[in-house]
Write a structure and sequence with these properties.
The complex is a heterodimer.
Chain A lengths: L1 H56 L2 H10 L14
Chain B lengths: L1 H6 L6 H26 L3 H12 E6 L6 E2 L5 E13 L9 H8 L3 H13 L5 E7 L1 H8 L6 E10 L7 H4 L11 H5 L1 H5 L3 E7 L5 E9 L7 E2 L4 H17 L4 E8 L5 E7 L18 H4 L9 H10 L8 E3 L4 E4 L2 E4 L6 E3 H7 L2 H11 L1 H10 L26 H8 L8 H8 L1 H4 L1 E2 L15 E2 L3 H15 L16 E11 L2 E15 L6 E8 L8 H19 L7 H12 L2
Parallel strand pairs in B: 2-8
Antiparallel strand pairs in B: 1-6, 2-3, 3-4, 3-5, 6-7, 9-10, 9-19, 11-14, 12-13, 15-16, 17-18, 18-19
Helix pairs in contact in B: 4-5, 10-20, 12-14, 12-15, 12-19, 13-19, 14-16, 19-21
The chains are: A mainly alpha, B alpha+beta.
């Protein structure tokens, strides 16, 4: 009787400790995940910002005016077209 | 105990002691009973209430798919933003004034609106939607009680008004309202996620109880549009619309061999990134949704019907004298008496009498059949919201007069896009179905409109239009053989055709040795001295085509061949 009692007691103690540690582990993992998710969100922001920046900088009209004004380029004359 | 009490009795009677004991015991019993009740009968209710107070169901918005051009250049991108809101019950309205300062809002208005919401017992009030994430982060760092930020997305269109009509627009909740955003809303939208969490006072998740749905980002949608061609078509179209003070204009460029839409532009346009300046009348996608009477641009199809009958060749003479013809009290006119023209000359000079004589000779059935195969009067196949279905009278309805008018493009209607699609049939006699999505391309077989031989003969005729005796010589592109047809249609007003309102067209292909592009330019109601298709639309056609052919690195045609053919065409 007392052996069984002792066994049950120790089982109760073990499961209580296990529960506490599992809960703590769950919270740690959750925090890790939250950090990762925040990082993902930040990277997504960064990525869309860069995509937009790139498409603005490489816009056809902008390249056209830059080529003409800064680089002094021009359309080829018709006499220069290879025929 | 009782014996003790007996011994220490100081006039206290036994029954009083019993009363106190019974009272305490019953109080204890009451508490026990309550405890049991709470744990059994009321437990589900209390549990639910407890959960309600701690567990939050959190919505995780999915990012909307990107729309890209054929080379993967972004045309519509969703970028993360933050929606700031307050719980008016929890927040101190006076603290809102500093928030307003950061957001560049009127402090007094914001404080007042929050106070009003608090008085009305609301527990949710938007401060500002779609705030830049960095700014929102700075504001949320102040940890003002009752102020919250939710993740959200905002749609951004890098090419702004250049692609506005094609892409359409989404509303503030990210739902498609117009154009492709509406047509492919489901596909682009993705699936919002949601999960159950327990949060602490600071809003940190401390426990995740379950995931109801994992957020799934929307798929990206690659279009057949080439953004470079789209830009240049838009620029040239805008220039001509401004120069001629026209009401509107549109241009459609197709890949002549596949029917892919490479550019689809309209004027006037709008900036989809700035919702404050939206005007509904500017949001119409004219190239797809507007119906026009194509006028003379239909004449090549009438001539094709004549060639297909087998009784005509490009050099068969037709007498168009005296330059006018009376049918049922209506007079059909040419600009002047062209005398005897062959079929090529009818196209070169755009003779109304010529094509009506041809139409009467081949009969309404043949005309109707060829026009219908070319897609006239057929519903659009793009699935675009508001896509127009043109009209084409049935053969039984084509009496002598209507047959004549139909032969030169009046009394029927199509959209500029359908006109461009019809012109793809001159490449090899087969009409290619237009496509706007990369995945749609080539899914439908082309529709045979005329024989390959007839198509080549028509192409040669179209080249003479751009030659030095033609009506569209300003559409010429040096170095390339270009063919096309001008058109000038009277606009329909309240009481029939307007005398002084016109729509100017040019529809054509290049380079003719191996057609690569089909381009249709429509300018609606140009004001001033110039209003003919050959004067207004043809120069734009030339400018767009020249740059587009260069951008696509199309090899120029042999010069000798082009000049020889122009001489041959012009000798008549």
């Amino acid at each position: 009787m007392s052996v069984l009692q002792g066994l049950l007691w120790s089982l109760v103690i073990i499961s209580a400790v296990a529960q506490v540690s599992i809960v703590s582990w769950h919270r740690d993992l959750l925090q890790e995940w939250q950090k990762a998710d925040r990082l993902r969100q930040e990277l997504l922001q960064e990525q869309t910002r860069l995509v937009l920046e790139k498409s603005t900088l490489t816009a056809h009209g902008r390249i056209d005016t830059l080529a003409r004004k800064r680089l002094g380029m021009k359309d080829p004359d018709h006499t220069q077209v290879f025929r | 105990m009782a014996t003790e009490q007996k011994q220490t009795e100081a006039g206290m009677q036994r029954w009083r002691m019993t009363l106190v004991l019974v009272a305490f015991a019953s109080l204890l019993l009451l508490l026990l009973g309550r405890l049991i009740m709470l744990h059994t009968i009321e437990q589900p209710f209390l549990f639910e209430q407890g959960e309600k107070r701690t567990v939050r169901s959190e919505l995780q918005p999915a990012s909307r798919g990107m729309i890209t051009d054929r080379h993967g250049e972004p045309m519509a991108v969703s970028t993360p933003v933050v929606t700031l809101w307050v719980n008016p019950q929890q927040v101190d309205p006076q603290k809102m004034s500093e928030v307003a300062k950061d957001l560049g809002m009127n402090a007094r208005d914001l404080v007042r609106s929050v106070e009003k919401a608090a008085r009305q017992g609301r527990s949710f009030h938007y401060v500002k939607r779609q705030v830049e994430p960095e700014l929102a982060g700075r504001i949320l760092k102040r940890r003002i009680a009752g102020l919250y930020g939710d993740d959200d997305f905002r749609r951004y269109y890098p090419a702004a008004e250049v692609t506005a009509h094609t892409l359409g627009i989404v509303n503030i909740d990210g739902k498609g309202q117009e154009g492709l955003e509406l047509a492919f809303d489901q596909y682009l939208q993705g699936q919002d996620g949601s999960r159950k969490v327990v949060k602490d006072l600071m809003g940190n998740v401390i426990k995740q109880l379950g995931v109801d749905a994992v957020p799934q980002a929307g798929e990206s949608l690659p279009l057949t549009i080439d953004l470079r061609l789209q830009y240049l078509a838009y620029r040239e179209l805008k220039a001509v619309v401004q120069a001629h003070k026209a009401h509107a204009g549109s241009a459609v460029m197709l890949n002549a061999k596949t029917g892919e839409i490479l550019a689809l532009v309209g004027q006037p346009s709008y900036n989809p990134n700035n919702r404050a300046t939206l005007r509904p009348e500017h949001m119409r996608n004219r190239a797809v949704a507007d119906l026009i009477e194509p006028g003379s641009t239909m004449k090549p199809f009438t001539v094709a019907a004549a060639l297909e009958s087998g009784r005509y060749s490009p050099s068969t003479p037709v007498n168009t004298s005296p330059g006018y013809k009376r049918i049922k009290n209506k007079t059909i006119r040419d600009h002047r008496d062209y005398g005897v023209l062959d079929l090529t000359g009818i196209i070169t000079k755009s003779s109304n009498i010529g094509v009506s004589l041809l139409a009467h000779d081949v009969g309404p059935e043949a005309i109707w059949e060829l026009y219908t195969k070319a897609g006239i009067g057929q519903p659009g196949t793009l699935g675009f919201p508001g896509e127009a279905t043109g009209s084409m009278p049935y053969p039984e309805q084509l009496d002598e007069l209507r047959l004549a008018t139909v032969s030169y493009g009046y009394g029927l209607s199509i959209s500029p896009l359908q006109l461009a699609e019809a012109y793809t049939s001159f490449v090899d006699g087969c009409r290619k179905h237009v496509s706007l999505l990369m995945v749609q391309t080539g899914t439908q077989p082309c529709e045979r409109v005329m024989s390959e031989r007839t198509a080549h003969q028509i192409l040669d005729m179209l080249e003479t239009v751009v030659g030095k005796n033609g009506t569209g010589k300003r559409a010429a592109v040096e170095g390339y053989r270009v063919g096309g047809k001008t058109g000038t249609a009277h606009k329909v007003g309240r009481s029939g055709y307007e005398d002084s309102e016109y729509t100017a067209f040019f529809a054509g292909l290049a380079p003719l040795s191996d057609p690569d592009l089909v381009l249709v330019v429509v300018v609606d109601a140009p004001q001033g001295q110039e209003y003919y298709g050959g004067e207004v639309a043809a120069p734009v056609f030339s400018r767009i085509m020249e740059q587009a052919l260069r951008l696509r690195q199309v090899i120029p045609d042999q010069p000798g061949e082009a000049q020889m053919l122009q001489v041959a065409g012009g000798s008549r």
